[in-house]
UniProtKB/TrEMBL annotation:
Alphabetic keyword roster: FAD, Flavoprotein, Glycerol metabolism, Oxidoreductase
Species whose genome carries this gene: Gelidibacter salicanalis
Domain FAD dependent oxidoreductase: 18-376
Keyword match Oxidoreductase: yes
Name of protein: Glycerol-3-phosphate dehydrogenase/oxidase
InterPro entries in alphabetical order: DAO_C, DAO_C_sf, FAD-dep_OxRdtase, FAD/NAD-bd_sf, G3P_DH_FAD-dep
Molecular functions per Gene Ontology: glycerol-3-phosphate dehydrogenase (quinone) activity
BP term (GO), one: glycerol-3-phosphate catabolic process
One Pfam match: DAO
Lineage of origin: Bacteria, Pseudomonadati, Bacteroidota, Flavobacteriia, Flavobacteriales
Highest taxon of the lineage: Bacteria
Amino acid sequence: MFDRKTLIKPLESSPDWDVIIIGGGATGLGVALDSVTRGYRTLLLEQSDFAKGTSSRSTKLVHGGVRYLAQGNIDLVQEALYERGLMLKNASHLVRNQSFIIPNYKWWDSLVYTVGLKVYDFLAGKLSFGKSTRISKKETSSRLSTIKTEHLKGGVVYHDGQFDDARLAVNMAQTAIEQGATVLNHFKVSHLQKDANGKVNGVTAIDNETHKEYTFNTKVVINATGVFTDEILQMDTAGAKNTVRPSQGIHLVLDRSFLPGNDAIMIPKTADGRVLFLVPWHHRVVVGTTDTLLDSHSLEPKPLDKEVDFILETANAYLNKPVSKADVLSIFAGLRPLAAPKDASEKTKEISRSHKIIVSTSGLITITGGKWTTYRKMAQDTINKVIFLGKLPHRECQTKHLSIHGADGSADDTDHLYIYGTDQKAIERLIQESPELGDKLHPRLEFLKAEVVWAVKNEMALTVEDVLARRVRILFLDAKAAKECAPVVADILAWYLGKDDDWKQSQINEFTYLTNQYIL
């Protein structure tokens, strides 16, 4: 069912669709899920790999947005808290309840954060992840053994969600396919088709694997391309004004010894007013994020030296275990598709994270903004808008209680394979049938060869990067180890995809070049 060639085969004989979505990140995949579960013939095309861009580069949080509460954006927070609760239920193998501690170094802060977080709890209602509480200096330093204790007054504990972003994107693609959608990675839209009245009625797209060109007809095209939104809008109208200004956020990944407990740290006020998180993730620690407006965008954004320095300086101001560049296992950068600020002085942290739906005169529908936590609501609003415009017959949204592929509330996170949820047993069967697949990909890592086989056979992985960046998250956890794994992964892929030695070497070379951007 999840074989790319099998999905592509019927395309020539069935070029007509109800909905075509451009973009395979959180937003596009969410729209595909909403569309197909309402019974519309749905096609999604992603130019690279699912979640290649912003959607694999988040802070790994499913959250209401404590800082949006401080800005007074109650509606956004309430919406996100509701969606957070649905994500925990619908993707129970990947989303979990995470406790956060805000360390307080002033008595006044303790009171302010306690009151604010009680409002956060109240807004979550029945879908609350747990009550916020004040804790003493002794308990704070006990739970956060690496926190600086000088002048520490205590802490405030609150609860939010933590997840694996790229894994969820892959499982959403699988869910959409199970529901009847055709969802394809490495398939680039090159042109928008229009009728005699200038209305968009299809797309031309190229399969990057075979370089074959296809033309598809549709009732509606939805642009869900994130930071690439303006490229599609300019494909629609030459010279169209930019609507998106990319904001870069970077993250550093450290060894778990820098945050050995089960709690995350939230630093609400940094030197420039941004929030910084230290979050346990796959037995490592993710530290971030920054917020830097950029003038350009790319599939592989590069961290800036000043961003690295900012995170290290801020972390070192709170930790009693010094962090240096030598301690960074991986560094990754992501771009947020913010609405282009009207005023050059407008700060990125003050630009609304609410999503926005744009209807072009050609009928092209564009969904921008938002965040991972609200992907389902963004999709619902987008398809509702399409229905309101009369492009599709009215049908109710079905995704509120739709389980995502792999959902398993009983998953045991002491075994790293828990992230596969209900697929874990199938991976274990692969190892029983071929014991060599139980070998580790790297001696200091927990990941197995069987996971690569699973990725290529059941998760549409086509390249070494697809596997090591977004199926098995080694590139984001330990970039040097990822580089060393590349030849083994290339061998396995070549065997299952029928590729030759030249292809293998090309893959190794490309991935080696890529990993250098993730190593400090």
